[in-house]
Amino acid sequence: MYTNPTIAVVGAGPGGLTCARILQLAGVAVTVHDADASLAARDQGGTLDLHADSGQIALADAQLTTEFAALARPEGQSHRMVDPAGTVLAEQVAAADESAAPEIDRAQLRAMLVDSLAPGTVRWGRKLVELQAGADGTPHRLVFADGTVETADVVIGADGAWSRVRAALTDTVPRYTGVSFVEVLFTRTAERHPEIATLVGDGHLWANGDGRTMVLQRNSDDVVRGYLGMRIDLDWLAAAGLGTADGRGGVLPASPALDANATQATDTERVRAEVRRRFADFAPELLRIVDESEGPLANRPIMALPTPTTWEHRRGIALIGDAAHVMAPFGGNGVNLAMLDGAELARGIVGALRDGTDVDVAIRAAEAVMVPRGAEVGAAANAAIVEHFAAGGPDLDDVPDFDAEAARWKERADAYRAAREG
Ligand SMILES: Cc1cc2nc3c(=O)[nH]c(=O)nc-3n(C[C@H](O)[C@H](O)[C@H](O)COP(=O)(O)OP(=O)(O)OC[C@H]3O[C@@H](n4cnc5c(N)ncnc54)[C@H](O)[C@@H]3O)c2cc1C
Asked: Measured in angstroms, how far is the CA atom of residue 88 from the centroid of ligand 1?
């Protein structure tokens, strides 16, 4: 049994940071290692909605509800759906006080969580290359790309889709869902892109075609981000002669050490022309999304782990969030589950340390909840993305109704809290 274990979290994403915050609030020492050189080292991407029954429960456990409310955008929950001709098919405007799933920029969420930790908790520039699992309760060795090695009794793998912690437990790696997203970006939108600002409104725009969808999402600070989603071969960039010069051009790397998101083309204007050709039947006002996008039109192949993904438990090693169950971003559950996983694992560890029981038993108990939950939600998300991008376009009856979802998140939140108190 561990007394006063050293705890290392690998990955300063929403899951790992939430976990570290709750441990630290309870006086448990923890270090977080992240591959990024700093908090601002890379573009953090778009907006995330934190659901009442998961992300918001984790935030409450982290005592960050007030900080979240100061940054959150309830109006961002509004949705508009159009067909390729631009005809509005459905529209839902969120009430100003709607609390089911307010939006927050990913960069703001991550910064808020980092700021809540004691200074120095996150060690930036620490890319884990290998976790050497200790035998029979001996400490695990964390080997980093900068040549440093650390040991820890408990290692929490929160290092995302291409987790190196997971590689110590299972060879399973994410697979391509058959759908890729090309990222679009608009800054100073009101002034530079007024038509885009009108299209997206305060929330989200979905323009659904046959195997192709345009998504726009309002972010804070007059920024709009979005995706041009396509059912397409993984190596479509390479097939169009637009792959990277490193020779991988669009092909899923064989080694899990390589991130398939590295599939990029450097000639943005040729990518734009290629994408525009693929969306040619969309209305001119929608094609502005392709034509006016700023930035590199980065390609994001959507990857998912098999459901379920399981592993033989190793003493003192846990996986949370995308490391355990990366899934298609349909339903917006990834960040919510990552934060809930992190909160539940932290609560379990804190409880074991307080009661003087075995921390590893608490890790196993958390795993017993997280793994099937991630598998169930992941299977639904992965099926939804395939169905959405199927030939003929999505069936409108299958598109989730926001009001019904909002009611469901709130009911589940009440049930979760009641079960915990009971
Ligand atoms: C296009 C797209 C849109 C999405 N939209 C939504 C959405 O609207 N709503 C939603 O809920 N989810 C969405 N998701 C999913 C969501 O982003 C993830 O589920 C969520 O970020 C998972 O959190 P995490 O903390 O587990 O991992 P991550 O956020 O991936 O964080 C992992 C951290 O680990 C670090 N790291 C990685 N490798 C190493 C290493 N070897 N050593 C050290 N550190 C490492 C990374 O730098 C990172 O900080 C989307 C995903 C994609 C691809």
From this structure: 32
Ligand 1 centre to CA of 87 (Å) is: 34
Total-model pTM: 0.96
161 Cα to the center of ligand 1, angstroms: 7
Ligand 1 atom with the smallest distance to the CA of 163 is: 38
Q: Ligand 1 mean position to 162 CA, how many Å?
A: 10
Mean pLDDT of 396-418: 88
Mean pLDDT, all residues of the chain: 92
Ligand 1 atom at shortest distance from the alpha carbon of 341? 26
- The 3-class secondary structure across the chain, one letter per residue, is CCCCCCEEEECCCHHHHHHHHHHHHCCCCCEEECCCCCCCCCCCCCEEECCCCCHHHHHHHCCCHHHHHHHCEHHHHCEEEECCCCCEEEEECCCCCCCCCCEEEHHHHHHHHHHCCCCCCEECCCCEEEEECCCCCCCEEEEECCCCEEEECEEEECCCCCCCCHHHCCCCCCEEEEEEEEEEEECCHHHHCHHHHHHHCCCEEEEECCCEEEEEEECCCCCEEEEEEEECCCCHHHHCCCCCCCCCCCCCCCCCCCCHHHCCCCCHHHHHHHHHHHCCCCCHHHHHHHHHCECCCCEEEEEECCCCCCCCCCCCEEECCHHHHCCCCCCCCHHHHHHHHHHHHHHHHHHHHHHCCCHHHHHHHHHHHHHHHHHHHHHHHHHHHHHHCCCCCCCHHHCCCHHHHHHHHHHHHHHHHHHHHC
- Structural domains in the chain, sorted by start: 7-74+98-173+306-392+401-421 (3.50.50.60), 175-302 (3.30.9.30)
Nearest CA to ligand 1 atom 7: 332
Which atom of ligand 1 has the smallest separation from the CA of 321? 26
Work out the pLDDT band at 116, boundaries 50, 70, 90: very high
